## 1
Amino acid sequence: MADQLISVDPTNGETIASYNSYDEATVSKALIQARKAFEIWKAMSLKERGTVLKNIAAELRRQKEKLAKLATKEMGKPIQSSREEVEKCAKTLEYYAKEGPKFLADEIVKTDAKKSYVSFQPLGVVLAVMPWNFPYWQVFRAMAPALTAGNTMVLKHASNVSGCALAMENVIKKAKAPKGLFQTLLLPSSKVEALINDPAIAAVTFTGSTVAGSKIAEAAGRNLKKQVLELGGSDAYVVLEDVDVDAAAELCKNGRLLNSGQSCVAAKRFVVVKHVLKEFEKLMTKKMEASPFGDPMDTKNKIGPLARVDLREKLHDQVTKSIELGAKLLCGGYIPEGTGAFYPPTVLTNVKKGMPAYDEELFGPVAAIIEAKNETDAIRIANDSIYGLGGCILSKNKARAEKLAATQMDAGNCFVNAIVHSDARLPFGGVKHSGYGRELGIFGIREFVNIKTVFVQ
Ligand code: NAP
């Protein structure tokens, strides 16, 4: 019997739909189609590809409300943030449609040849293995540059968002794209390795946990296939002694509650200099406690349920263990009564090395406050993590904060007085166990290309 991929509404625990996973023959047919589409797509000009990208953007906007409701239903994010996510995907497609020709133009290099230059050629079919937390954005931010460069794509999405995965395939079908340009493969994670082994797959892009990322890297490495890995994070927000503490706590609260706390670049650790610690704890707790959580279809709620009950169990376990090891609970930290995967905004302080709240990624609305003696100690603590995805420095002295962000923080995305976020124009990615390679901007489009030297004498 085929594996079942089941979508469950995390707001009430009800099953939305159950999908049969694809059998080998269906997968094989899809891969043949993706290769055929590649031959057609790569022969099209960048302008022609750009027109298809713009058609996809228009179709996304036409279907925005339907897509937004589906995402909120399948993984619980607040409805307004689902709408914004669809819009961000459309804008990113338009960005690459416009900038693609510039990013992929031949680059002349003067040598002793009559003519020598660098040409950017597509690789083939890119396999995308993606997580549920931004069910559209994660896919489109990898897809937009990969397709612009002339590749085609097959998607293995997270098993709890199969509806979103099929909806994206449908959007692309409606956008007058070559048949097979982008296809969804409904598969459990146990079938990913076989997919990576398949000669039809040229490269792999993965976004998800560090554990799964290392398995993907192993399989792709064994097959000598190019890979980009966007993995977990435990971003530190460093609060220096000269901040306006209320404004700092407001920004930190908003950074923590992003996507109900389930974002790779959500603020997770708050490294606060002793001088302002007590004040920060008080204000952060007040603001977190005042953040409404509940039905994600109701726009007054900025926080929905977590995406699955098992993810809530894991988070609660990390909170409980941290408390057992000496962390102090300032608010939240309990499993609410009733159905759904809800978890309240939670603040832990006195967090120290050796506790899950210090060492691990907390994927939900839990703030971990860590005391630092001074600026040097704060940077040491911020960098004392296996992760290196993002980070933020909060200070009234922008020059001082910028220097720390640019030269001292070990992370791929370092912000000053602003919440870490992705932007199509800027590269996005991590160091250490947060992965390698970059998405977005010019760096993202150059990941899945053959950077070819052409030498003419
Ligand atoms: P996950 O468990 O790693 O799942 C991500 C994807 O990988 C899903 O499609 C999943 O399929 C598949 N998968 C899981 N185990 C696999 C394995 N052993 N081999 C092959 N594929 C496997 O991650 P998640 O819990 O869905 O997402 C949360 C994590 O993603 C967090 O750590 C977060 O920080 C990270 N993330 C990182 C970024 C970034 O840009 N750096 C962005 C978003 C999220 P199934 O659903 O079928 O298991």
Note: The longest strand covers residues 115-122.
## 2
Amino acid sequence: MSEPTNSTFRPRIFSGIQPSGGLTLGNYLGALKRFAALQGDQAETVYCVVDLHAITVWQDPQVLLSRTREAAAAFMASGVDPAQSILFNQSQVSAHAEMAWLFNTVARVGWMYRMTQFKDKAGKNSENASLGLLAYPALMAADILTYQATAVPVGEDQKQHLELTRDIAAKFNHDYGVNHFPITEPLIEGVATRVMSLRDGSKKMSKSDPSDASRINLTDDADTIAQKIRKARTDADPLPGQMDGLKDRPEARNLVNIYAALADETPDQVLGRFEGQGFGAFKPALAEVAVEAMAPITRKMSEYMADPAQIDAVLADGAERADAIARPILDRTKEIMGLLRTRR
Ligand code: AQP
């Protein structure tokens, strides 16, 4: 059996975001902004609010409902157009959960224990973590491969899970002697693939970080954004003319990267203008760029959130369209595995 190549498959992009908290600037720059930019290219785009992933850690049911709608609003406010892309929430398309079970039989337990996100999230008390948190990457592989997606735009933190998706696809293809799943390409591009916490340059900006000051939320108003940037941890040194000079200054590097990503410039272009200046000059300029970029998104999000019925209609339509792609691929997967199909 020759190795499958992605040219065997129709170009299709899949990605998702968990409604496990309010979305952040990290989600915007690492994911949402790029999701919007990939529309209308040659590939079909399928985007998902992954609520089944969110419940791998406890979620208040009422809060989860509203965060799911808020995440959908954030997709649309960031430029994901439901006419150009399929936008839905994961739990409405049962093929994801069914495929995840099939992949639980393909993936190996050792693969799951190696995942750094599991180690980080389960912490010292891993015996007490949900089984879902351990199996999370098999569901993520299912999200992607149920659409035979050929490419997945993600931030750097998801790279290891993407590699596991490729391992599952390759093992399935090998074990059953088929070319059924593509070996999905990760699209980890740009200067903001890993936006760091504003309080600690060694930690990723994350929606579930207990410190609200560590992140910029997509719902923060202009004053809050400016205040968080003003208080962001930095150092006392002036800025160099090039990124090489920021190797050992993670907080400074992070703020320059954020500026560059928001302004659609390279970090060296940004530093070219601020060389020799300190954060007293840089932070107000960054706040201005951030407010200018984020204010329209925050405004559109609250407009969408004012009409939850409209969001629900978009998600219902997206779920129908997603199901129409996913169902035949799932059925074929079951057939390949020898699961008897008698209902038509
Ligand atoms: N800090 C980040 N920088 C760049 N990209 C990021 N992403 C998340 N944080 C950053 C990207 O956003 C997409 C959706 O991620 P997710 O919501 O599925 O989960 P996550 O990666 O675990 O994000 P969080 O914010 O850290 O969520 P919690 O706190 O619930 O774990 C992915 O493409 C991710 O790479």
Note: The pocket of adenosine-5'-tetraphosphate is lined by residues 17-18, 20-21, 24, 26-27, 30-31, 154-155, 157-158, 192-195, 204-208 (CB under 6 Å).
